[in-house]
Amino acid sequence: MKKIILAIAILCAVSINAQESASYKQKTIEFIKLTGTSDAFENAIDQIGLNVPEDKKEAYKKEAMGTLDGLYEKIAELYMKEFTEAEISELIAFYKTDLGKKLASKQTTLSQSSMMLGQTWGMEIGQMAQNYAKY
After folding, report:
1. Residue 119 has pLDDT above 50, yes or no
2. Measured distance CA(71)–CA(77) in Å, rounded
C-alpha cells in the first residue's frame, strides 16, 4: 500500500512539474517573440525563399513558417538555462512597455549594424596582429 501511495505521489509531482515547465516554456517563447525575433525569422524566410518560383512561394512560406514552433522551443530551452521564470516574467513586462517595444523594433537593425562594425574592427585587429607577427 505504501508503494502505491508513493507511486501516486511521484506521478502527481511529475505531472505538476511538467505543467509548470510547460508554462515556463510558453512564457519564454512569448518573451522571445516580443523581442522582435519573429520579424527577423520571417524576413529570413523571405530572403532565403527569393529564388523560389512565384507559383510555389505560398507553399514554401507555409512550410517554412511551420518550422518556427520547433525553433522557438529550442531557443526557449537556451533562455531557460540562463533566466529563471521570474526573470522571464520581468523581461516580458519590460518588452510590453513603450521602451521595450521600441527596443524590439530596432533590435534587428542594431544587431546587423553591430555585426558589421565588429567585422571591421576584427579586420583592423587582425592587421595589427599581422604587423606584430612580422617582427
Report:
1. yes
2. 10
